[in-house]
Design brief:
Elements lengths: L2 H18 L3 H35 L1
Helix pairs in contact: 1-2
Length: 59
């Protein structure tokens, strides 16, 4: 699996944990973690695409 896909999977896991958690503070922390993981996955995906585009222009 790719890095972006792994990050998205971790985000899903964090959201499921947030739903199951009774503690509101911990649930909010898990939701925030899920958002951060998704943002990180998007950056990884964008950088990979950017690198791929640069290689095609050079070659």
């Amino acid at each position: 699996m790719g890095v972006a896909k792994d990050l998205k999977k971790q985000a899903e896991t964090a959201e499921r944990a947030a739903i199951r958690t009774a503690d509101e503070f911990a649930a909010n922390q898990m939701k925030t973690l899920a958002e951060a993981l998704r943002a990180q996955a998007e950056v990884v995906k964008r950088n990979k695409k950017k690198k791929k585009d640069e290689l095609h222009r050079k070659g």
